[in-house]
Amino acid sequence: MKKLIKNTLAIIVLFTALLANANAPLSDLKNAKRTTLTLNDVKKGDKLLIKNTQGIILYNESIQNSGDYTKGFDLTELPNGDYFFELNKAIKIVIIPFHVSNNIVIFKKEKELTIFKPYIRNKKNKIYITKLSLDQKPLDIKVYYEDLNGDDFNLIYSETINNDAKNIGRILSLDEKLKGTYKIVTKTEGRTFIDYIQF
Questions:
Q1: 96 neighbors 107 (Cβ within 8 angstroms)
Q2: Is the pTM of this model over 0.85?
Q3: Domain positions in the chain
Q4: What is the mean pLDDT of residues 47-73?
Q5: Would the N or C end of the chain have less CB density within 10 A of its end CB?
Q6: Residue 183 pairs with which residues in a beta bridge?
Q7: 118-198 domain in CATH 3.90.550.10?
Q8: Can you list the alpha helix ranges (DSSP code H) found in the chain?
Q9: Could you tell me how far CA 22 lies from the centroid of its own chain?
Q10: Residue 32 pLDDT > 80
Q11: Check whether domain 11-114 has CATH 2.60.40, yes or no
């Protein structure tokens, strides 16, 4: 009789433990598919994108809080291929590539890239253009002018800086008689940036 009670208690304990953990594997399975992305020092308004190699945006989020950003993504459902996270900040773009193959996600840490954006400001009749270029990539600059009547923008300046330094800098003097809107288009590392200055 004692043996029967012990066996019954053992079966009840085993059955209870089995029931208690019955949901755990499903939850763990879901979490196992999730990739956690952590980004440091983000600012409110920064943009986080997931893109494929054709530049198609698959995910787009505007960061809501400054500080550290952590979020889980299920990237395993993406078709086989190459993708990347893109964090678009005020002064730079951070690219984090990854590859999906048969529901397995592999990050390409060695191919992470930071593109520094050109910084443009004006003071009186001068336009200051600066850019940090650690890889010493060329910078194309085009300046267009639209007069106060709202006529179309006309190209007034064009230059390609083939860079042999890590810092690019240009100061452009504007004709003080040409009041209106200036559109500055800069291109570097496959990206185009457009800024407007009212003078």
A1: yes
A2: no
A3: 11-114, 118-198
A4: 95
A5: N
A6: 144, 196
A7: no
A8: 2-20, 24-33
A9: 39
A10: no
A11: yes
